[in-house]
Amino acid sequence: MMNNTFRALPTDHPFMIDEYSFQKELSYKAKGIEIHVAQFDQQSFDDNLFDVTNVYCPIAITQSADKRKAEYFAGRYLVARELQNWGFSHQPLEQNVDRSPRLPNDIIGSISHSNDLATVAVLPSSNVNRENIGIDIQHLISSEVCNDIENMVATVQEVDLVVRYGLTRTEAVTLLFSAKEAIYKALARFVRRGLDFNSATLIEIDKGTVQFALSKDITSQIFDSEGDNDSRSVICLYDYLAQQNAYLTVCYCSADT
User: How far, CA to CA in Å, does 168 sit from each of 154, 173, 204, 228?
Assistant: First the structure.
């Protein structure tokens, strides 16, 4: 039985190779949000880490490969530590239907991982049923993978728009893939049907931001207002993490705006 004590790893533990945090300023929040990124060593993972830290491991994860267990542990560990910093009692962080972690009633948050990187963001919320946040991290994809997934992820027009801005084709597809994943995570709790890569279409890219138009079907499921047949847009914040050769994207959605 899990108790309410979270136990952080020693600072010299080999599993966590490197960690850092940075602030993202959000126009809808006075203080912005803190993003946490960690590089972890899959070879240093051991099942005992769940017991040592008291991070809950569901049965499905116990039956997974070590790579999956290491990814799962890294993300939940970072979230558990953040919740402790916010003053919350430790809890299992079981999965919601959309596979996001089940957080305290007045917290929204998101987890992402890519290879040996994990990132999390948690944010106090006065109404978790009306707002949400999604985060995604994605290493730069190879040309071969780009060829396989480009048509699934984005339209030719979306990729061309990012390339005209100055990114390479593989960078464009990676950024679009990551941003749409972040959007999916931010919108999943509000949408009952039809949420996929076609639900958001890139309309503008600038330094640090990408703006997407939501499909009318998705818009009508989220926003309770007159004219809900009109398309709305969402903005993702993005950073290129040069040292890790990865894109990190964050998306916020409020059903009240």
Answer: 15, 9, 17, 36
Contacts 24+ apart (CB under 8 A), 162-167: 162/202, 162/205, 165/205
Sign of dihedral through CA atoms 214, 219, 225, 227? positive
CA proximity to 231, closest of 221, 241, 239? 221
Q: ∠ CA 256-21-2 to the nearest 5 degrees?
A: 80
Average pLDDT of the segment spanning 134-141: 97
Q: Is the pLDDT of residue 231 over 60?
A: yes
Q: Is the pLDDT of residue 138 over 90?
A: yes
* Statement: residue 3 has pLDDT above 70: no
Are 121 and 110 spatial neighbours (Cβ–Cβ below 8 Å)? yes
Closest CA to 232 of 241, 242, 223: 223
Say if residues 145 and 177 touch (Cβ distance below 8 Å).
Answer: no
How far, in Å, CA of 8 to CA of 187, rounded? 31
Closest C-alpha among 220, 238, 239, 240 to residue 229: 220
